[in-house]
Amino acid sequence: MASPARRVVFTGIGVLTPIGSDAPSFWNCLSAGVSGVKAIQSFDTGGLTTRFAGEIPTFDAKKYLDKKERKSLRVMARGIQLAVAAAQLALDHGKVEKAKLDPTRFGVEFGAGLLATELPELGPASQISCNGVPGGVDLKKWGEQGIPAIPPLWMLKYLPNMLACHVAILHNAQGPNNTITESDVAPLLALGEAGRILRRNQADFFLVGGADSKVNPLSMVRQCLFGHLSRRNDAPEKASRPFDRQRDGFVVGEGAGVLAVEDLEHARKRGATILGELVGFGSAYDRGMGGQGLARAIRAAIAQAGITPDDIDHVNAHGISSIHGDIWEARGIREVFGDRDVPVWAVKSYVGNLGAGGGLTELGASLLALSHGVLPATLNFDEADPACPLNIQREPRAIQKPYFLKISLTEMGQTAVVVCKKWNS
User: Fold this and answer.
1) pLDDT for position 2
2) In a domain? residue 228
3) Number of structural domains, the chain?
């Protein structure tokens, strides 16, 4: 990330998760070992093979917007609403006075994935067009009667760039603005890009984030048919089991993580509390998902940070809890760290897979751990898997070193890694 003259620091954390709707409540539940994976409440799951998720049942986006801004909610899918709310939380946590920011130097970078449609918006059009035959589509009816039945603003609600778009509009952020649509790795890729822009002196302040909601009838049907979900309906809080030998699949969830990220001198001038520093970034494609690509990304991030693997306090893993995904992630970590026995922490054991909302939410968890001096345990790790030879964090432990490494992956093999440092001066 180029010149050391400009350093990139974190000054605010905004999170909405199944275990907490701001940074303090999120940390309290992590510290107490509270799982947010429960039976789904928002819709009838009777016909599904998996009937639980990491859900935020009490989320109301109106709480985070002024009255005059609330009309925009009608063109925001749930994932966008989560992004907008978490952005406000990040500004609040960072004590940011927007009026004192130069709007042309205020950027927005977001990661996003597939935004699932609400059934009432496409359902009627689909029913009209299928002639009552499951799987059948009458294209003539679709064109003449189906399309007119779709709400005119439907597409605006589900475009993935709308997360960054709405955040920028609401906060008058006129600087660099981009969306990376690469699912689970997208937020870390967005953070890497924001860091490069800050170091090139093309912006002073960023809101960097990601948000997603897979707790949706359409998403759940798709995941149950084609995904690799856990089916522990009798004990959902035990279902997300990263790297555990008895894992039977991953858990979907919903949430958002947005970080206030800025140039060090800009943060100092406004009297911000600095939570940590971004010091390394790497990404790679792991062809064949054997761990070699992930290892390249890890090495690149560590090299850019100017440190060695011995300096890392802990690895904040992707830890999705899928049978095969955990194995190849473990191989990549092991290739770099060998027998060093670096502690590995998996936040998804608390909240499930938040999709594009997960990467920075999980990174925020490690920033909070640095601030409190304690790394919480990974939940539901009862039996080591010989195929995942890692030192999984079973019990809380004191933070011992100033650096941590965060990993994000996709099921197709994309990887992204960042190294962050505790702030001491």
Assistant:
1) 44
2) yes
3) 3
pLDDT digits (tens, 9 = 90+) for 246-305: 999 999 999 999 999 999 999 999 999 999 999 999 999 999 889 999 999 999 999 999
Same domain, 129 and 178: no
Tell me the C-alpha distance between 408 and 410, whole Å: 7
Give residues with Cβ within 8 angstroms of 237, minimum separation 6.
Answer: 35, 37, 38
Taking residues 351-371, what's their average pLDDT? 97
* One domain for residues 131 and 190: no
Cβ within 8 Å of residue 124, ≥6 positions away: 149
Question: Per-residue DSSP letters for 83-128?
Answer: HHHHHHHHHHHTT--GGGS-GGGEEEEEE----PPPHHHHHHHHHH
Q: Is residue 47 a part of any domain in this protein?
A: yes
Q: Are residues 123 and 111 in the same domain?
A: no
pLDDT at 1: 42
Position 1 in a domain: no
> Domain range spanning residue 136?
119-149
Whether the pLDDT of residue 73 is over 80: the answer is yes
Contact 64, 70 (CB under 8 A): no
Q: 125 and 96, same structural domain?
A: no
3: in domain: no
**What pLDDT does residue 273 have?**
97
